[in-house]
């Protein structure tokens, strides 16, 4: 790190614990919480809770002045009227590092959020909107402009992420409303439809003009296909990077071929580098985590070993354990963290539901190192402790589930979660 001066001041809190303030290049960083807000972090890092109780927080975005924008999902089960949603803008008005100013805006269930050229972009299940930001004001003013409308209304994997390439294009995921293209879906022994008709309007990434209003899916371009569900998307180094939720319930639907352990450990969550025309093989194949290769799905005649048609599809550039449920990815471009983190990827894993009778897993922020534009070395769990208990059998018992990551202007990292809507700021203070 290019530090003119780094020192650690320890001050007693009301509880007698120690808090930390780090001064770098004349700037004072906020005090971390004595317990890092419940998180477990690598040596040299600490964290503070900067906001709480926001509601079901999903992706987050940071403005150059440090204001934070948080997408909020609407709550309510099927058949119930949704409540909440929209987004909230946060500001630290008194300089203590915590967000005491909170201004809600927008409406409807929102999962993806991004900032560009004076607009905040909001991704909803059926539409993509943007709202104008005015200099000096925290939240946007005026009516939302609809960039994309009429997206598929199928209820499964409808959450949207969004990415902007800096050259006028916007990318969104359109998840597949299916596990493996069975008809009917999720039934024991039912073969997959071949070819899978779902891929015509789902299971891929669509590209749009970020400045053109009222576009339909047909007016966009299908940029990549063969993906199941992938709100974790980001543009980096000339390509779109995606981390995908792989298939569920191998043993439930194909018990003669797969065990509960197979289901819990084999269908990897893959990171993909997508360029125009990429095809990653869903629903015909899944990436086998232990074997490190694509294998044929049982819905298409696979026995857990056959490769078959999977040779024609693009494999992931990195893979992560089954059912961890990736929901956001951000590449680190700052200088506050040690050199090994630079240009590597942080991934928020929401956590599994489909590993029983084994304990649930994921519920963390993981770091994947990159060197010279390619994944290098094994991933490591960067931030843990979100669940509040180990082992975890029921996902609803988790205290927190990571859902959003954003890099602050000073190079620290924000992490958001969706159970209650808590936001942490992770700071490097040196070893």
CA-based gyration radius:
21 Å
> Would you count the extended β strands for me?
34
Strand order of the largest sheet: 15-16-17-18-22
Q: List the total number of helices.
A: 2
End-to-end gap:
12 Å
Q: The biggest beta sheet, please?
A: 5 strands, mixed
Task: Please mark out the parts with pLDDT under 50 across 5 or more consecutive residues, or reply none.
Answer: 1-27
Structure classification: mainly beta
Mean pLDDT: 92
Question: What is the helix content?
Answer: under 10%
Shape: globular
Q: Strand percentage, roughly?
A: 35-45%
Summarize the structure.
With 431 residues, the chain is mainly β. It is 2% helix and 39% strand.
Which descriptors would you attach to this protein?
mainly beta; five-stranded mixed sheet; four-stranded antiparallel sheet; 431 residues; single chain; globular
